[in-house]
Amino acid sequence: MKAAARIVEGGRAREVEARAFPLSLGGADADIAVPGLESGEPAAFLALDRGELFVQPQGPGLTLGGAPVTASQWLRDGDELRLRATRVRVGVRGDGVVLEVERLPLDTPTEPPALVIPPRADAPAEGDALVRPVAFRPKARALNLETTAPRRLPLLPAAAVVALLLAAGFVLAARAVEVRVEPEPERLSVRGWPQLPFGGSRLLVPGLSYTVVAERAGYRPLEAPLEVTGERGQVARFSLELLPGLLALDLTPASGVRVVVDGAERGTTPLPPLELPRGEHEVTLRAEGYAPYADRVSLEGGGATETLRAALVPDRAPVSFASEPAGATVRVDGGEVGSTPLTVDLSSGARTVEVALPGYHPASRRIQVVPDRPLSVPPFRLKARPGRLALASDPPGAAVTVDGAFRGETPLELELEARAAHAVRLTKTGHEPAETSLTLERGEARALSLTLVPRLGDVEVAAEPPDAEVLVDGESRGRVGQTLRLTAAPHAIEVRREGYEPHKVTLTPRPGFPQAVRVRLRSLEEAKEAARPRLLRAPSGHEMRLLAPGRFTMGASRREPGRRANETLREVELVRPSYLAVREVTNAQLRRFRPEHSSGRFGAHDLDGDAQPAVQVTWEQAAEYCNWLSAQERLPPAYVTRDGRLAGAEPPTTGYRLPTEAEWARAARFGGGEAIKYPWGAALPAPPRAGNFADESARPVVPVVLQGYDDRFPVSAPVGTFPPSTLGFFDLGGNVAEWVHDVYAIPPADAPVERDPMGPPPGELHVIRGSSYLHGTITELRLSFRDYGTRPRPDVGFRVARYAE
After folding, report:
1. Per-residue pLDDT tens digits for 701-748
2. 783: buried, middle or exposed (CB in 10 Å: 19+, 13-18, 0-12)?
3. Does the global pTM surpass 0.70?
4. Structural domains in the chain?
5. pLDDT digits over 299-321, tens only?
6. Is 473 left (phi over 0), alpha (psi -120 to 50) or beta?
7. Which string of DSSP letters, residue by residue, matches 113-178?
């Protein structure tokens, strides 16, 4: 509809191109003069919004169809407005609006009562019921409909100025706002005042309250606040929310059906249509006595209704059973349901069926029952139950054959074919055979015992000590010194006594040919010692020799030349057997653990050869190497960290470790009974090839040498170069001195006998034993010489040890 309106007054018509027509005293071309108003301000506006005409009252007195107008109202063809003595009829002609203004006779009409008029049937939706005024600026002179009415001419210029100022202020303050709604609504309006349509936008004042109202079929109505800022060219975007779809249920049975949608319970039928989001949904139906039903439904949304029609299938089916022979009892899932032949209704699902008949083996089967689908189970062919024979013999353990077939040894449970003759034969070594025949009824259980006559032979048993016990096949027969009559079969004969290793032998007596068992028992210690290997080669390559237990004296007498104060005489006893490495650890062996190790040089001579003993090693590094060896063989570590430093584990383990000072002294000094003083014997001079000491060849590197002795090695020699000691150990004297396990201390004199001493509690200093290629004095060459230290030295290495058990 066009924005222009045709105003008819007193039979004359004029086209007025304006968006608003104030009902006022007049004074502008766009005014409709209303005589009798006391002020020059407009009493109401008639305006167009998107081609629709509405009225906006500005004060009291305006009526529509006889009812007071207190808020914005849409106007339709034929509506009649009245303000005092002026009546305006609204007419819609084609694409234009005709306003017929009529001056009524001057009288004083009585104001109609204030009535609340119900909304008209053709009125816009609720969001559009209130029409906000549209600002305008008059451009033409007012139409004076009553020339004879008195006019307040002095007020008209002031009113025009005020109107112009208000319009100008609105235009300056307003901002163009384009409202976009997705998807495009069927009805769109903006509530709030003042506002003015402007092209595809609206002129709105920032900071004022506006509300966007939009509607579209299938979507939720939108009513959202519109925030207007001071920016120009604003675009306000809104989205309509699609209505959910409706799922109606047409089910058989119509009631009592539990409805589950997408895993959530939605109730039990009957149910109203279910609101569900647009898309696919998993619907599951369950009812007592019916098989579960599942289906997928797709909803378009937007309030559209889809109907799910489903008929639930009864959760049972007839199942038929038969057996050969008939009359068998049928159990389903453990519950008895009848005897074959049989037809019974069963609920759906997997079922276990068992069929049993006296005298026959039971049979079972798994079946799957499908709702409302009859099932005929294949017949059960029952196998007749055999007779059962419990067979025993005296003595037990006889071999059993039935009808020539071996069936086991007595005592024995046998299943035999019923109503058939069977030949049973029992045999046992050293006994005469026993035979019988029998027939069993179907399902019969019978017990039978047969006696076998023994064939005997004589065995004499004699032993030392004479109070030893003799056992035959694990059964005690008393003390030795007797002749036993035994069956002519292999027997395990054992002679034993507490504290001795038992003696076992297997023999077969022969009737008429006497036999004898004569033995001397060894003590447990003798047996253990005999069984323990003397020489042990470890996986790491270390060759280790058994160090036998024993009691001896460590240290040296005060009268011994060269003795030092720390060589206190003391009694020790080695109780726990151990293994000691035959040779010192070489550079090559240590580098498998510490690839970066280097023994360096001494003077101009190299100490780093693969076969030379590893030196420049701290006590802790030697202990770490021992733990590494233990880990290679999965042995418990001999050293643990305690108070921030390595110390021996308590109690000592069987892992690799450094030899204790007592073990080192035992191996070095007590090879032939009496303790020796020097590595080669009791006195000087050292014989040729006695070991690697500070000799004539070492004069360039050491100040004191063993005069007249030349071992041809100025520094360390490859381990094992010189002959071993009496016990088979190399370089316990000479080559390099060695770290031992013990923390250094001076032992007290006249102390009690120490058994397997491991040294004092953890400390900083550790004992060093043995002379080296730098030693050539009487003090140092003696095997009782004790040294100590903390730092690595070019003449100190180590060897490894471990307990045997």
Report:
1. 898 999 999 999 999 999 999 999 999 999 999 999 999 999 999 999
2. buried
3. no
4. 5-171 (2.60.200.20), 174-239 (no CATH), 245-311 (2.60.40.1120), 316-381 (2.60.40.10), 387-451 (2.60.40), 456-526 (2.60.40.1120), 533-805 (3.90.1580.10)
5. 988 888 999 999 888 888 999 99
6. left
7. P---PPPPTTSPPGGGSSPPPB-----S--B-S-TTS---TTHHHHHHHHHHHHHHHHHHH-EEEE
